[in-house]
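Might you be able to review the protein record set out just below?
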Amino acid sequence: MTATAKRTTQGIKPGGRVLCAMSGGVDSSVSAALLKEQGFAVIGAMMRFWPDDKRSDTFDTCCSPDAAYEARRVAEQVGVPFYLLDYREQFQRHIVGPFLAEYAAGRTPNPCVNCNTKVKFDELVKKAKMLGCDYVATGHYVKRVEEESGAVAFHRGDDPRKDQTYFLWGTPRDALPYILFPVGEMEKPRVREIAEQHGLLTAQKAESQNICFVPGTVQDFVAEYVPQQSGQMRDIHTGEVVGEHLGTQFFTLGQKKGLGLFQSHLVRHVVHLEVGSNTVWVGEYEDCLWKGLKALTPNYLIDLTDLPSELEVQVRYRTAPVRARVLHADEHGFELEFDEPQFAVAPGQSAVLYAGPKLLGGGLIADHVRALPV
């Protein structure tokens, strides 16, 4: 067993039975290979999300029929059984439906958070227990840390460019001990190197960057399901009509491109989406600065009494965490005050809480109340 292999299962004795989620990508392929190498009894599984009437340009990179074929081939290479699990109904109910509903409500959802929370680390953990497995493993760049108390915590992956803890804040706390991340302590080049050493066919497979079920742009996809309705674009300070639009669902906070202002030379950002009146309120950059946020439907991965009064919060996947003070926190949500105002904190996105590298939990960002012109 290599030194790297020992680190990936810290506190875990080899020999257990593991359900390894295989997406057909290099990260999950290497995860299965490492676990098998370490002496675990590995079962490979892929969750089928694509419908029978799969549209072109959807599910073509991750979670696709071709990816399922590649995952099965990798399982054969590694020498583990492989199963395709049907989660089409759950995916439509938990992911696609809420995705459209959030845009219709003037919010900007993150479907990958929902997928990990309600499908991969809820439904899949339940399936693993039904199959008599001790653990579920994935190719996420997240570190599983067993603390002195015996509790399991999730920490940021060692590769800062690939860290995926942001997507896992909603993981049920009681599921943490059952989840393994074999590549969480590696950097991507090392993962590809291991794949090459094992001769895995996914070693140089490109990564998927798009939302798997959306063909083309998000705006075009939303337009097919959420009816267009013409409305006005107004200045947040004066109430003056400065443009027109076809629905608040096509905008997100902070947006400055594609606004179609009457005076096209003006630089304006979307400040607030008022769905009831179908109004898009715009203003200057400073009008998009938030001093804090409120979040609802929280999930805490520690006891609420242990939540620090000062912590770090990340409000988008591709942004750095910032310091914040906890003004209030309970089972219904939390309220934070930033050390420095933050630009365009979008309702519907996730506010993810950290203490250094440790993931503490998170919640869904709620809209802030603005004083609108009469």
Notes: The first strand starts at residue 17 and ends at 21. DSSP finds eight helices and 17 strands in the chain.
